Amino acid sequence: IATTLMKSLPDDVDLYHVGETRFALIYREETGALHDDIASALLARMGEPFVTEGGITVQLQAHAGLVRFHCTQPETTDVLRMATTALYQAEAEQRPWAWYSPEFDMPHKRAFALLRAIPSSLAHGEFRLVYQPKLNLHTARISGVEALARWRHPKFGDVSPAEFVELMERTTLIHEFTEWVLHKALEQQSIWRAQGIDLTIAVNVSSRNLEHPMFLQMLRNACALYRIHPQTLRLECTENAVMTGTLTAATLEAVRAMDIAISLDDFGVGYSNLSCLHSMPVEILKLDQTLIKHIATDERAFTLIQSLISMGHSLGYRMLAEGVETAEVLDLLKHHGCDAAQGYYISRPLEAEAIPAFMQASRGPNFQG
Ligand code: C2E
Ligand code: MG
Ligand code: MG
Prior knowledge:
- The chain is of the alpha/beta class.
- 42% of the residues lie in helices and 21% in strands.
- The protein has helices at 2-8, 36-46, 79-92, 106-123, 161-169, 173-194, 207-210, 215-225, 239-242, 246-257, 274-278, 289-292, 299-314, 327-335, 355-362; strands at 14-19, 22-26, 50-51, 57-58, 64-66, 97-99, 127-136, 141-153, 157-159, 200-204, 233-238, 261-267, 284-287, 318-322, 340-342, 350-351.
- An eight-stranded mixed barrel has the order 7-8-10-11-12-13-14-15, surrounded by six helices.
- A hairpin with a 2-residue loop joins β1 (14-19) and β2.
- α6 runs parallel beside α8 (215-225).
- It starts with a helix and ends in a 7-residue tail after the last helix.
């Protein structure tokens, strides 16, 4: 590729190999600046099929990120990063090339700023947990809650867990975070227990957590500290967490041996590998909200859920539905044997202090569940 590039470039253009499958070219302004036509011609040249030494014909699809800069500017050291950002943008938009624009940087800058803010936010109590009740459809009682993390930052405001969990998963912060969640949730459960409120508690864990060598120890310590009955704790893992490898499988087996139930979150939307699932120590399948949403209005969606519930039961799983937003959906689930349900119709996630009053009301005659 370097040879092809060198043959196609004017003499005064510098060519650098800056990474695997990646080149940087520097065009000088005074000898005819780089413009769209040059980029277009160069990429077309790169896209022509060529024959390798081994006699194989290869056709590349090259993309480019373009940036204009002056050597005197202080951000010269940033040029390669800017070009890379533009390259990603071109790839994302499936365009052959893109000129750098500062807004391309925004997501990266935000991600970086958020990540930097997390440790002090954890230390300063800017994270908290809310708890979403789960309704047992056999007893019509609230049997447990799921702990969901919330982050309110003084500058960024409310940041969604979908955003910050994904960021943390790219770093080792996810371990510290899950430990914090587990401690907070188990402490809260023991406070409720002292108030005579018995609830199972579910904590979300990410696949990275399960791969950590100290995960089991961390779990044991937290359970011992708050004197938790393991039967009242559930770990919610997504499919990709459960199916990743032998390391995770061994961890999950150990969790199961501790009498802690594992719930497969977002079931039915990933690439469920049923033969693999079969060999995993999972007890609860949590039907994803996108499957539940339309069962009252879409017959095929309903048939799918009906079949999943019956399949799950035949294989010995307990079935939990998430994202129940209407009475009709709840009724259908109840009448088709689903074991438990969670969703805005039953309750939104609540602050810890609101749980006792909610539990009181849920025993009354007007409770919607
Ligand atoms: P999830 O575990 O599948 O949680 C369910 C999400 O659906 C929650 O969003 C919940 O607030 C929302 N939800 C519940 N009922 C309804 C409903 O009836 N309708 C609709 N439209 N949504 C409903 P949330 O709290 O924003 O959390 C999003 C995801 O972030 C969670 O998905 C979970 O994967 C992750 N997450 C949240 N807290 C934690 C945590 O402490 N640790 C980890 N590792 N992940 C977490
Ligand atoms: Mg969950
Ligand atoms: Mg889910």
